[in-house]
Amino acid sequence: MNAEHSRARVLVRTADGSRTLSWGAEHYHSIHGAVQESTHVFIKAGLEHLGKPHVDVLEVGLGTGLNLLLTWIRCLEGKLTVAYHAFEPFPLEADQLNALAHCEDLAWPGLHEPFLDVMTSAADTWHEGMGGLRFKRSPTDVRRLDADQEFDVVYFDAFAPNHQPELWTVEVFERMHRALRPGGLLVTYCAKGDVRRAMISAGFAVERLPGPPGKREMLRAVK
Ligand SMILES: C[S@@+](CC[C@H](N)C(=O)[O-])C[C@H]1O[C@@H](n2cnc3c(N)ncnc32)[C@H](O)[C@@H]1O
User: Residue 86 C-alpha to ligand 1 middle, in angstroms?
Assistant: First the structure.
């Protein structure tokens, strides 16, 4: 990943009209609809499924910040409060975030400046006063995650296992299992059999759920 990191990222319009980036053969979101996929997998099957008034989120792969924005909007709507810690070793530049214009696609244009601010300012610092959301991003590689029962849900949004197999291992799932409280959830767009088996080996109970448009299934792992 490091050696390839400088490869250009290209703006792509997905089938639901929202934008994402492509990076070689990989996409940051499904080309069948970025907002649809993020809402289905991470918000509905993860965050909202918990049904808690306060949720501690760990995101693995902050990327373009779309999952952050969708979570933040639910906080601004008064649905819950969230402490959101995101890991991203390869943060995007402000010009890439500007071009993506997620806040415009989500019909929350007023969020663009505060969003850009938290996405590009100091890492490893909690940003407060965001209307029910606290946010911190860290350059941490998920393979060095060292948390014990700190989170209610993990948004596991790494690039696909054929692209980054080193992130979809039993050892990484064991670290995420340890980071979750009992009853906590790990959600991901990936439904591969090898991935499901690695999650089970790490101690999770795993459900196959219907996927977002364009994908038959997704996985939800429960501690
Ligand atoms: C599918 S994209 C994430 C999409 C993102 N959630 C969004 O809404 O735009 C995968 C992300 O994982 C990041 N990543 C790569 N290696 C990682 C690692 N070892 N630990 C954590 N994140 C990593 C990539 O830089 C990339 O931003």
Answer: 10
Torsion over CA: 212, 136, 83, 58 (sign)? positive
Q: How many domains, in total, are found in the chain?
A: 1
CATH code: domain of residue 108: 3.40.50.150
Categorize the per-residue pLDDT at 24 as very low, low, confident or very high, splitting at 50, 70 and 90. confident
- CA gap 147, 178 in Å, rounded: 7
| Residue 15 belongs to some domain of the structure | no
- The verdict on residue 4 lying in a domain is no
In-domain check, residue 111? yes
Query: Residue 128 — φ and ψ, nearest 5°?
Result: -110, 180
Model's pTM, two decimal places? 0.96
8 Å CB contact between 215 and 183 = no
Name the amino acid, one letter, at 78. G
- Residue 3 — pLDDT band, cuts 50, 70, 90? very low
51: left (phi over 0), alpha (psi -120 to 50) or beta: left
- Containing structural domain, residue 80: 32-222
Asked if residue 9 belongs to a domain, the reply is no
Residue of the CA atom closest to atom 25 of ligand 1 = 90
Task: Evaluate whether 98 touches 70 at the Cβ level (below 8 Å).
Answer: no
Among 88, 119, 140, 189, which residue has the most ligand 1 atoms within 8 Å of its CB, making it the best to mutate?
Answer: 88
